[in-house]
Amino acid sequence: MSILALVGKYTMKFIVSLLIFFIGKWVISKLAFVLEKIIHKTKIDAMLGNFLLNVVKTMLFIFVILAALSNLGIETTSFVAVLGAVGLAIGMAFKDTFNNIGAGVLIIFFKPFKLGDAIDVGGTLGSVRELNLFTTYLTTGDNRTIIIPNSQVISSKIINYSLNPTRRVDLVFSIDYKDDLKLARNLILEIASKKDIILNEPAPFVGVSTLGDNSVDLAARFWTRNENYWNVYHQMLEEVKEAFDKNGISIPFPQVVNHHIYDPKDRD
Q1: 0.70 surpassed by pTM
Q2: In what order do the strands lie in the sheet with 205-211?
Protein backbone atom coordinates (compact mmCIF):
# COMPACT_ATOMS: atom_id res chain seq x y z
CA MET A 1 0.00 0.00 0.00
CA SER A 2 1.36 3.38 -1.00
CA ILE A 3 2.01 6.16 1.48
CA LEU A 4 -0.74 8.29 -0.08
CA ALA A 5 -3.24 5.47 0.21
CA LEU A 6 -2.19 4.86 3.84
CA VAL A 7 -2.49 8.55 4.67
CA GLY A 8 -5.87 8.70 2.90
CA LYS A 9 -7.13 5.66 4.82
CA TYR A 10 -6.20 6.98 8.26
CA THR A 11 -7.27 10.52 7.38
CA MET A 12 -10.72 9.20 6.57
CA LYS A 13 -10.78 7.18 9.81
CA PHE A 14 -9.70 10.24 11.77
CA ILE A 15 -12.46 12.32 10.18
CA VAL A 16 -15.04 9.61 10.89
CA SER A 17 -13.82 9.36 14.49
CA LEU A 18 -14.19 13.14 14.88
CA LEU A 19 -17.70 12.88 13.47
CA ILE A 20 -18.51 10.07 15.91
CA PHE A 21 -17.20 12.20 18.79
CA PHE A 22 -18.99 15.46 17.93
CA ILE A 23 -22.24 13.85 16.78
CA GLY A 24 -22.18 11.65 19.87
CA LYS A 25 -21.61 14.69 22.06
CA TRP A 26 -24.56 16.45 20.39
CA VAL A 27 -26.79 13.41 20.88
CA ILE A 28 -25.77 13.20 24.56
CA SER A 29 -26.72 16.84 25.11
CA LYS A 30 -30.14 16.22 23.52
CA LEU A 31 -30.70 13.04 25.53
CA ALA A 32 -29.65 14.84 28.72
CA PHE A 33 -32.15 17.61 27.98
CA VAL A 34 -34.97 15.07 27.50
CA LEU A 35 -33.91 13.14 30.61
CA GLU A 36 -33.88 16.35 32.65
CA LYS A 37 -37.45 17.10 31.53
CA ILE A 38 -38.54 13.58 32.49
CA ILE A 39 -36.90 13.93 35.92
CA HIS A 40 -38.72 17.22 36.54
CA LYS A 41 -42.06 15.72 35.47
CA THR A 42 -41.66 12.69 37.73
CA LYS A 43 -40.85 15.05 40.65
CA ILE A 44 -37.77 13.10 41.71
CA ASP A 45 -35.80 14.68 44.54
CA ALA A 46 -33.60 17.48 43.15
CA MET A 47 -30.34 16.07 44.54
CA LEU A 48 -31.07 12.54 43.29
CA GLY A 49 -32.17 13.79 39.85
CA ASN A 50 -29.02 15.84 39.38
CA PHE A 51 -26.84 12.91 40.44
CA LEU A 52 -28.54 10.48 38.03
CA LEU A 53 -28.27 12.96 35.17
CA ASN A 54 -24.53 13.39 35.72
CA VAL A 55 -23.96 9.63 35.89
CA VAL A 56 -25.85 8.99 32.62
CA LYS A 57 -24.01 11.80 30.79
CA THR A 58 -20.63 10.53 32.00
CA MET A 59 -21.32 6.92 30.97
CA LEU A 60 -22.56 7.95 27.53
CA PHE A 61 -19.57 10.23 27.01
CA ILE A 62 -17.17 7.38 27.85
CA PHE A 63 -19.03 5.15 25.37
CA VAL A 64 -18.67 7.77 22.60
CA ILE A 65 -14.94 8.16 23.26
CA LEU A 66 -14.41 4.38 23.12
CA ALA A 67 -16.38 4.19 19.86
CA ALA A 68 -14.25 6.94 18.29
CA LEU A 69 -11.02 5.24 19.40
CA SER A 70 -12.23 1.88 18.14
CA ASN A 71 -12.88 3.38 14.71
CA LEU A 72 -9.24 4.52 14.60
CA GLY A 73 -8.18 0.91 15.08
CA ILE A 74 -7.09 1.33 18.70
CA GLU A 75 -7.75 -1.81 20.74
CA THR A 76 -10.32 -0.54 23.22
CA THR A 77 -10.04 -3.59 25.49
CA SER A 78 -6.39 -2.76 26.12
CA PHE A 79 -7.33 0.88 26.54
CA VAL A 80 -9.95 -0.01 29.14
CA ALA A 81 -7.41 -2.17 30.99
CA VAL A 82 -4.87 0.66 31.04
CA LEU A 83 -7.58 3.09 32.09
CA GLY A 84 -8.55 0.75 34.90
CA ALA A 85 -4.95 0.52 36.13
CA VAL A 86 -4.61 4.28 36.02
CA GLY A 87 -7.92 4.62 37.81
CA LEU A 88 -6.72 2.26 40.56
CA ALA A 89 -3.54 4.30 41.06
CA ILE A 90 -5.54 7.53 41.17
CA GLY A 91 -7.98 5.93 43.58
CA MET A 92 -5.21 5.01 45.98
CA ALA A 93 -3.77 8.52 45.80
CA PHE A 94 -7.15 10.18 46.30
CA LYS A 95 -8.67 7.77 48.78
CA ASP A 96 -10.25 10.49 50.93
CA THR A 97 -11.72 12.18 47.86
CA PHE A 98 -13.40 8.97 46.75
CA ASN A 99 -14.62 8.41 50.31
CA ASN A 100 -16.39 11.75 49.99
CA ILE A 101 -17.91 10.68 46.68
CA GLY A 102 -19.18 7.44 48.23
CA ALA A 103 -20.57 9.37 51.19
CA GLY A 104 -22.26 11.81 48.81
CA VAL A 105 -23.94 8.91 47.00
CA LEU A 106 -25.17 7.51 50.33
CA ILE A 107 -26.57 10.90 51.34
CA ILE A 108 -28.35 11.27 47.99
CA PHE A 109 -29.96 7.83 48.16
CA PHE A 110 -30.78 7.59 51.89
CA LYS A 111 -31.77 11.29 52.10
CA PRO A 112 -31.22 12.09 55.80
CA PHE A 113 -31.89 15.68 54.72
CA LYS A 114 -32.76 17.72 51.64
CA LEU A 115 -31.92 21.18 50.35
CA GLY A 116 -33.20 23.88 52.70
CA ASP A 117 -33.45 21.65 55.79
CA ALA A 118 -32.14 22.96 59.10
CA ILE A 119 -29.71 20.35 60.41
CA ASP A 120 -27.07 19.82 63.07
CA VAL A 121 -24.03 17.87 61.86
CA GLY A 122 -21.76 16.92 64.76
CA GLY A 123 -22.53 20.20 66.57
CA THR A 124 -22.52 22.41 63.46
CA LEU A 125 -25.95 23.98 62.91
CA GLY A 126 -27.15 25.44 59.61
CA SER A 127 -29.50 25.06 56.66
CA VAL A 128 -28.46 22.88 53.72
CA ARG A 129 -27.59 25.13 50.78
CA GLU A 130 -25.86 22.70 48.45
CA LEU A 131 -24.78 19.09 48.23
CA ASN A 132 -22.32 17.85 45.63
CA LEU A 133 -20.36 14.61 45.38
CA PHE A 134 -17.54 15.93 47.57
CA THR A 135 -18.91 18.40 50.13
CA THR A 136 -22.04 19.66 51.88
CA TYR A 137 -22.62 23.42 52.18
CA LEU A 138 -24.41 24.76 55.25
CA THR A 139 -25.54 28.36 55.78
CA THR A 140 -25.59 29.41 59.45
CA GLY A 141 -28.02 31.81 61.12
CA ASP A 142 -25.48 34.65 60.84
CA ASN A 143 -25.05 33.92 57.09
CA ARG A 144 -21.72 32.12 57.25
CA THR A 145 -21.05 29.26 54.84
CA ILE A 146 -19.67 26.08 56.36
CA ILE A 147 -18.27 23.45 53.98
CA ILE A 148 -18.15 19.91 55.39
CA PRO A 149 -16.65 16.88 53.57
CA ASN A 150 -19.37 14.34 52.86
CA SER A 151 -17.42 11.59 54.65
CA GLN A 152 -17.60 13.64 57.86
CA VAL A 153 -21.30 14.30 57.36
CA ILE A 154 -22.20 10.63 56.92
CA SER A 155 -20.07 9.56 59.91
CA SER A 156 -21.48 12.23 62.27
CA LYS A 157 -24.69 12.34 64.23
CA ILE A 158 -27.21 14.25 62.09
CA ILE A 159 -30.13 16.05 63.72
CA ASN A 160 -32.73 17.15 61.17
CA TYR A 161 -34.98 19.88 62.58
CA SER A 162 -37.03 20.14 59.37
CA LEU A 163 -37.95 16.50 58.86
CA ASN A 164 -41.19 16.86 60.85
CA PRO A 165 -43.58 19.80 60.28
CA THR A 166 -43.87 20.65 63.99
CA ARG A 167 -41.40 21.14 66.81
CA ARG A 168 -41.59 21.53 70.60
CA VAL A 169 -40.28 24.64 72.33
CA ASP A 170 -38.87 23.84 75.79
CA LEU A 171 -38.47 26.70 78.26
CA VAL A 172 -37.77 26.92 82.01
CA PHE A 173 -39.11 29.75 84.18
CA SER A 174 -37.80 30.11 87.73
CA ILE A 175 -39.82 31.73 90.55
CA ASP A 176 -39.12 32.40 94.21
CA TYR A 177 -40.33 29.94 96.86
CA LYS A 178 -42.56 32.64 98.37
CA ASP A 179 -44.30 33.39 95.07
CA ASP A 180 -47.72 32.03 94.05
CA LEU A 181 -46.98 28.86 92.08
CA LYS A 182 -50.46 28.46 90.59
CA LEU A 183 -50.58 32.11 89.53
CA ALA A 184 -47.24 31.81 87.75
CA ARG A 185 -48.40 28.65 85.96
CA ASN A 186 -51.71 30.21 84.90
CA LEU A 187 -49.98 33.34 83.58
CA ILE A 188 -47.73 31.28 81.32
CA LEU A 189 -50.65 29.20 80.00
CA GLU A 190 -52.78 32.33 79.46
CA ILE A 191 -50.07 33.97 77.36
CA ALA A 192 -49.65 30.77 75.34
CA SER A 193 -53.42 30.44 74.72
CA LYS A 194 -53.52 33.88 73.06
CA LYS A 195 -50.84 33.04 70.48
CA ASP A 196 -51.97 31.70 67.12
CA ILE A 197 -48.47 30.39 66.40
CA ILE A 198 -48.70 28.00 69.38
CA LEU A 199 -50.66 24.83 68.60
CA ASN A 200 -53.57 23.67 70.74
CA GLU A 201 -52.76 20.03 70.04
CA PRO A 202 -50.63 18.87 71.74
CA ALA A 203 -51.78 21.32 74.41
CA PRO A 204 -49.30 23.66 76.12
CA PHE A 205 -47.89 22.23 79.34
CA VAL A 206 -46.46 23.90 82.44
CA GLY A 207 -45.32 21.97 85.50
CA VAL A 208 -42.73 21.98 88.28
CA SER A 209 -39.48 20.42 87.08
CA THR A 210 -37.04 21.21 89.88
CA LEU A 211 -37.05 22.42 93.47
CA GLY A 212 -33.72 24.20 93.36
CA ASP A 213 -31.56 25.81 96.02
CA ASN A 214 -32.86 29.29 95.24
CA SER A 215 -35.95 28.77 93.07
CA VAL A 216 -38.86 26.66 91.96
CA ASP A 217 -38.31 25.83 88.27
CA LEU A 218 -41.30 25.53 85.98
CA ALA A 219 -40.87 23.54 82.76
CA ALA A 220 -42.98 24.95 79.91
CA ARG A 221 -43.55 23.09 76.65
CA PHE A 222 -45.24 24.49 73.56
CA TRP A 223 -45.75 22.94 70.13
CA THR A 224 -45.47 25.02 66.99
CA ARG A 225 -44.67 24.74 63.31
CA ASN A 226 -41.00 24.63 62.40
CA GLU A 227 -40.94 28.08 60.85
CA ASN A 228 -42.37 29.63 64.06
CA TYR A 229 -39.97 28.01 66.53
CA TRP A 230 -37.77 31.02 67.28
CA ASN A 231 -40.74 33.42 67.34
CA VAL A 232 -42.39 31.34 70.05
CA TYR A 233 -39.10 30.99 71.92
CA HIS A 234 -38.33 34.71 72.14
CA GLN A 235 -41.90 35.99 72.49
CA MET A 236 -42.71 33.68 75.40
CA LEU A 237 -39.54 34.63 77.27
CA GLU A 238 -40.27 38.33 76.89
CA GLU A 239 -44.01 38.27 77.62
CA VAL A 240 -43.75 35.92 80.60
CA LYS A 241 -41.09 38.20 82.14
CA GLU A 242 -43.39 41.22 81.70
CA ALA A 243 -46.37 39.32 83.17
CA PHE A 244 -44.32 38.18 86.17
CA ASP A 245 -43.22 41.77 86.83
CA LYS A 246 -46.82 43.07 86.71
CA ASN A 247 -48.04 40.39 89.12
CA GLY A 248 -45.20 40.63 91.63
CA ILE A 249 -43.61 37.31 90.77
CA SER A 250 -39.85 37.52 91.07
CA ILE A 251 -37.24 35.64 89.11
CA PRO A 252 -34.63 34.71 91.74
CA PHE A 253 -30.90 34.67 91.24
CA PRO A 254 -28.20 32.77 93.18
CA GLN A 255 -27.43 34.40 96.51
CA VAL A 256 -24.50 33.98 98.85
CA VAL A 257 -25.16 34.49 102.56
CA ASN A 258 -22.15 35.26 104.79
CA HIS A 259 -22.42 34.60 108.53
CA HIS A 260 -20.01 36.61 110.68
CA ILE A 261 -19.30 35.24 114.15
CA TYR A 262 -18.69 38.08 116.56
CA ASP A 263 -15.55 37.79 118.64
CA PRO A 264 -15.02 40.42 121.43
CA LYS A 265 -11.33 40.38 120.61
CA ASP A 266 -12.15 41.91 117.23
CA ARG A 267 -12.80 45.25 118.99
CA ASP A 268 -9.09 45.71 119.32
Answers
A1: no
A2: 166-175, 216-225, 205-211
